[in-house]
């Protein structure tokens, strides 16, 4: 019996189409098939996200080795993982700020060259930080990855790492901000976030390169962290200034 895939028309005799991978046993949509599809998508995506997140904490080096060697379906794709966690994190942050009425607490003496910009940074820092991701990826490639990974692989590594840091931030907002009512706009809260990002980056770099016999590994990791922190901070300051000026032009006092 000659059957054809209902999606692409390719002749099929297996459970899945060899051309487009759609299941071949689909009929009219029923409540039963809709519910099954809905449940499958939900549990599958959730299982994948938790598995990918856990692997990124436990042994990121192994995830990258497997992912680059071709194990793709096992993990949530870096783009999806990034978009999901950045969105969840930013929404959680905004929801907590608007419900709690927290006010920023600055560290005395630590301001940007234009003091008003620090307010922009405190309020919108999460968005601005996303823009730093391509900078970090380039620095990672030139200072650490170059001989082991291609540039696009370096971008994927940075994407996953950024996403995982946002997972931590989300947990901090929920546990610290929503549960224990800590001021998420306090400079100490930011300090903990910055330290988390630094510690995770050290762990990820070590996990990635420990079996790759890289010369001067620790010196490279520390230089990368220092240069990355300085460049990212300068960039955030620049963007905050720009944002502040744009806001001033839009709404003159
Ligand atoms: Zn097909």
Tell me what the structure shows:
The protein is mainly α. The chain has one domain (59-250). Helices cover 69% and strands 2% of the residues. It contains eight helices and two strands; from the N terminus they run ββαααααααα. The protein has a two-stranded antiparallel ribbon. The longest helix has 34 residues, at 217-250. 23% of the residues are buried. The mean pLDDT is 88. Bound molecules: zinc ion (ZN). The site of zinc ion has 8 residues, from loops.
| Broad shape | globular
What's the number of structural domains?
1
Number of strands: 2
What value does the average pLDDT take? 88
Helical proportion? 55-70%
State Rg: 23 Å
What are the secondary-structure elements, in order, as H or E? Answer: EEHHHHHHHH
Query: Ligands bound here?
Result: zinc ion
Sheet-strand content, in percent, reads: under 5%
Low-pLDDT parts are none
Task: Summarize the biggest pleated sheet.
Answer: 2 strands, antiparallel
Quaternary class: single chain
Query: Biggest sheet: strands side by side, in what order?
Result: 1-2
Amino-to-carboxy terminus distance: 77 Å
Helical segment count = 8
Structural class: mainly alpha
């Amino acid at each position: 019996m000659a059957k054809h895939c209902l999606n692409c028309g390719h002749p099929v005799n297996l459970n899945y189409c060899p051309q487009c991978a759609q299941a071949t046993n689909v009929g009219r949509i029923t409540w039963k098939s809709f519910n099954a599809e809905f449940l499958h998508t939900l549990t599958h995506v959730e299982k994948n996200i938790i598995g990918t997140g856990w692997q990124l904490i436990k042994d990121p080096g192994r995830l990258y080795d497997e992912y680059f060697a071709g194990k793709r379906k096992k993990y949530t794709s870096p783009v999806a993982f990034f978009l999901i966690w950045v969105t969840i994190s930013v929404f959680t942050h905004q929801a907590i700020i608007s419900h709690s009425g927290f006010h920023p607490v600055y560290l005395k003496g630590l301001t940007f060259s234009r003091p008003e910009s620090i307010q922009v940074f405190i309020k919108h820092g999460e968005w601005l930080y996303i823009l730093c991701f391509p900078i970090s990826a380039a620095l990672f490639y030139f200072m650490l990855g170059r001989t082991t990974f291609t540039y696009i692989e370096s971008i994927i590594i940075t994407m996953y790492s950024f996403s995982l840091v946002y997972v931590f931030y989300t947990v901090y907002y929920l546990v610290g901000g929503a549960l224990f009512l800590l001021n998420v706009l306090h400079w100490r809260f930011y300090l903990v976030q910055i330290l988390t990002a630094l510690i995770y980056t050290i762990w990820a770099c070590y996990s990635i390169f420990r079996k790759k016999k890289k010369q001067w590994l620790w010196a490279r990791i520390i230089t990368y962290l220092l240069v990355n922190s300085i460049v990212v901070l300068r960039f955030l300051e620049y963007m905050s200034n720009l944002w502040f000026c744009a806001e001033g032009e839009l709404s003159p006092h």
